[in-house]
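User: Class I SAM-dependent methyltransferase, Streptomyces jumonjinensis:
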Amino acid sequence: MPVASGDARSLRQARMLAAALGPAAARPAVVLDVGCGDGTAAATAAPLLAGHRIIGVDWSQDALRRARTRLTDVVRGELTAGRLPFRSGVADAVLFSEVVEHLIDPDSALDELRRVLRPGGHLMLSTPNLAAWYNRALLLAGVQPVFSEVSLRAIHGRPGSEVVGHLRLYTARALREFVTASGFEVVRVQGAPFHGVPRPLRPLDRLACAAPSLSSILLLHAQRT
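Assistant: Predicted structure for Class I SAM-dependent methyltransferase:
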């Protein structure tokens, strides 16, 4: 599957994290980018997180090889294989960008993220929005929503042609409830645009970000309780 996030959503997420952590001069933070892919999202965040330590984590050796060209620290780890290779409470923040929708067991994944975060630590999660503005229109027309997939071999019944392995999709309300039930306190949910929206519709997609429940991408900031 693709390992790069869209720059617009990565930058918005990075700004949320930078605001939450504050300047590194006060106390440098440890930020784990879990599911870092090729490191693009973390590299986009790095200028806004100067002085903080960003560690890329992924299960794919190919992804980590690419990430090493952008990040100083990369570690192999698997959420689905049990524990990440970090002690409990080591992280001040976790970036979890476009990962949760690919997981068979998202509950165990959030349990593990909560374990590695210190009390009060920040979770920055992003995921496609099942109830994006265009998906509501597509469903009314009897068309399969964008981001959803019914096969691992090909796309059927919806726009697009690339299979990326989405297993779980969330609305803003469902995402809030899911994260809260996993032992986090939701601080804020913001919207972000989707780079795959056709160019003539992109101004409308950016406008929809003002109402996260309608936006293409959900950006959630939560803290470990």
